[in-house]
Amino acid sequence: MSESSRRAMEFGKLNYLIIDDFENFRLSMRQMLRSCGADRIEQAGTAAQAIRHCTYNHVDVVLCDYNLGEGRNGQHVLEELRHRKLLKRASLFLMVTAETSKQMVMGARENQPDGYLTKPINRAMLDQRLGALIEQRNALYPINRELDRENYPEAISLCLQALPKHPRYRTWLLKTLGDLYFQLGDLSHAARVFDDALKQRELSWARLGRSKVMLANRNYEDAVASLSQLIARHPDYMEAYDLLAEGLQRQGKLVDAQHTLEQAALHSPNALLRQRQLAQLAEANQDLEAACEAWRKTVTLGTHSIHDSADHYLALAQSLTDLSEGDAEEAGAERADEALNLLKQMGKRFPEQPELDLRSRLIQCRVLAGRGKASDANRLLDQIREDGGDGQSLTADTALDYGKTLFRLGHAGEAKTLLAELAERFASDNEVLNRIEALLDEPVGFRQKLQARTLNRDGIKAFESGDLSAAVEAFSQALEIVPDHAALNLNLVQVLMKQRHSEADSSALLDRCQRCLDRLAGLPEQHRQHRRYLALRRKLEELTP
Amino acid sequence: MTKASPAASDNEDRIDFSMVLASAVHDMKNSLGMLLNSLDELRGEMQGSASSASRFNTLQYEAERMHNDLVQLLGIYRLGQDHLSAHIEEHFVPDFLEEHLARHSPLLEGLGIQCRIEAEDINGFFDADLLTGVLNNTINNALRYTRSQIRLTAQQREGYLVLGVEDDGQGYPDSMQHSGTIRFGALDFNSGSTSLGLYFASSVAALHREGERRGSIQLHNGGELGGGVFEIWLP
User: Fold this and answer.
1) Please, which pLDDT band fits residue A354 given cuts at 50, 70 and 90?
2) Residues A324, A336: contact at Cβ < 8 Å?
3) Contact list, A120 vs chain B (CB under 8 Å)
4) Hey, what CATH class is B18-234 in?
5) Scanning every residue of chain B, which has its alpha carbon at the shortest distance from the alpha carbon of A121?
6) Is B92 in the A-facing interface, judged by CB distances under 8 Å?
7) Is the dihedral of CA A290, A296, A297, A299 positive or negative?
8) Which of A28, A67, A100 is closest, CB to CB, to B41?
9) Residue B97 neighbours by CB under 8 Å, 6+ apart
10) Global confidence as pTM
11) CATH class given for the domain over A3-139
12) Does ipTM surpass 0.90 in this model?
């Protein structure tokens, strides 16, 4: 049999799906595929049609145009097919593009297609390119079948057998092998695969893999160094940024991690998961402006993505609300409006979820309160109370949000009762307990919280440099903003006790200490400051005549 | 429509002309892509009507050339913006060359030019996108100057992967024959041919590095076909 008729036969064995919004392109692609020997060819004009087809039919080769007009693009299609496991590893996904702009290719990296076809395409190109991919698919089919079955040890031994047999697929085999060892936790074998590849030459995928192994071995310093180097050489290698951010995060360098992701987002702004990661990091860093921006992008990118979630809307609405509180400028009003609009959109996009509706209304309460509309806010809160928002059946997230809202509307007592109940319900969940503590410590708006934190830092600095009266001043000012803050009260007690030695009238100081400690009388045992509180109370008793 | 590059300027009143140009080039390139697609289909439909074939070939050749030029312009723009870095991957060289030949095969047939590949069965390390730009341009150039034959070669020489495009035309004039790297400053925009293509090829070659060694291009005459020989040496 001749080479070309053998190839035509291979084309004929497979199922094809052509996705393009232009009928003319679909028809001409179909014509070309037919003349290559393909027979079972289906078509889809939209992303939705394509995904529906793949849900109910087996497809071996997908030829998908990147630009599908309004709505979802080829990348969204690939993302969803992979995420919902509608496409087997043994199948081929080819992205058809009118260009190979780096930005598009980079956005595609997270869910990589098996190949790109650049328009204009002619029959000879399609025959050659797709033919070579089908040949590769056939050669590697046994391995991909084991990968689909998640039988990794078998896949590893097949890779090892194939290496000497198929030198032309060496890169694919080595990458897959390293990745498999890594997934199975066999870090030393994974490292050896990447090291061997690197011995041959400096290859970015191998360098990335090697860094991944370092991270898994908790060798953060080397991992961070090697990834920084990789990025310096390849400023558009997105996986390297993600991994570097992870390494920095594990080192506790959250601000550096945030900057790394910000840089990555400049290069490749369309990756939803990275924007979300960035938003969360910025939140952890109290950089609310940056968090707000990243959440906004996450919400926008979610419109067409399988990763869309109501949580993104809530997070954005929260950060907008926090920023607008106490901001008398026009920007404050704009953000408040944006938050309200966003919640309305969320209601339409994710209908009929009672808890979601409740959370939406809780945020609305805070927006209204923040804009000085206290009576509107309280009216809405009354409705929430009537609808059964008693806190007993709520998730921790919602109950915490409820507590925050009650504090903001001036119902501190009610908030404390709610949080006490919540603490009882989640007595064994440290994460929830920590969040309750944080809210009780600082039940104020974002700006005030920052102000109190800055004052606290100033106080500690003054204390360390020996300027006790400046420290007292700073801590006292901070306590005016957050009077129940446990650590702050204890800080003040500590400075006052020290100051006592140099002051003539020590009984007034001791009185002040007593008042601080009285405020913390109800501090629960599991609170991080509880032992310090006990120690300082004992000390005060000794000092008091 | 996705643009080649986001507007980076904070000052919205200032026109970033190179950005405007890049966007326009990007749109033109995509339009030409559509045009070329239609030409391919037309060629399929009008098989045998020899009287219009030569004009048709000219049409397709010139459209291809413009398309290549625009792709290259975008490449150079990105090079200038430092957006371009080489993604070195391992590729099976004969497949890579076959693919390029396939892109040009309708026109080659139309013009009656024979083209053959003589490649060793080797793997090479290079950025496929960047090399695609270089090869398209070089093959297109060879199409213009050849009489009847083009030869694509690939071999391992002195530890480098050498890809070559040879033709049986007049060869390069003395002034163009050289080897090494071309600097942007050395381009002469007043002469008829700016050698922008060579600058691009040379820049792409230089992006390929391995340890101390760098890629380069070489132009000379002779080869097996006796015409121009373009070589790109990759470490």
Assistant:
1) confident
2) yes
3) 33-34, 36-37, 40, 67
4) alpha beta
5) B37
6) yes
7) positive
8) A28
9) B117, B119, B135, B152, B154, B163
10) 0.81
11) alpha beta
12) no
